[in-house]
């Protein structure tokens, strides 16, 4: 059983690099969709060496 915190999203991610939104403007949260352009925010690179369930807080 996976418990999640309110305001968070749990996603199943494959191995590789995933670009996570840090600005809160993405229409495809938790992934960066370029909505940060014009702000001081940059997406966070999440690098996984194997598939994982990841909880990401908003
Ligand atoms: S859309 Fe939020 S960091 Fe890119």
Task: Sum up the structure in keywords.
single chain; 58 residues; mainly beta; Ribosomal Protein L9, domain 1; two-stranded antiparallel ribbon; two-stranded antiparallel sheet; 4 strands; 0% helix; 38% strand; globular; binds FE2/S2 (inorganic) cluster
Secondary structure: helix percent: under 10%
The CATH topology:
Ribosomal Protein L9, domain 1
Helix-strand pattern, N to C?
Answer: EEEE
Q: Write out the strand line-up for the largest beta sheet, numbering strands in chain order.
A: 1-4
How many strands appear in the DSSP assignment? Answer: 4
Per DSSP, the total helix count is: 0
Principal-axis shape equals globular
- Strand residues, percent: 35-45%
Ligands (ions, cofactors included): FE2/S2 (inorganic) cluster
Measure the end-to-end span.
Answer: 21 Å
In total, how many domains does the architecture comprise?
A: 1
CATH class: Alpha Beta
Q: Would you tell me the overall average pLDDT?
A: 91
Pfam families: zf-CDGSH (PF09360)
Domain Iron-binding zinc finger CDGSH type: 6-42
Organism: Romeriopsis navalis LEGE 11480
GO molecular function: 2 iron, 2 sulfur cluster binding; metal ion binding
């Amino acid at each position: 059983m996976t418990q999640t915190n309110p305001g968070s999203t749990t996603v199943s991610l494959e191995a590789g690099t995933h670009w996570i939104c840090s600005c809160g403007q993405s229409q495809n949260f938790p992934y960066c969709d370029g909505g940060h352009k014009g702000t001081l925010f940059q997406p966070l690179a999440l690098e996984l060496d194997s598939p994982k369930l990841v909880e990401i807080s908003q």
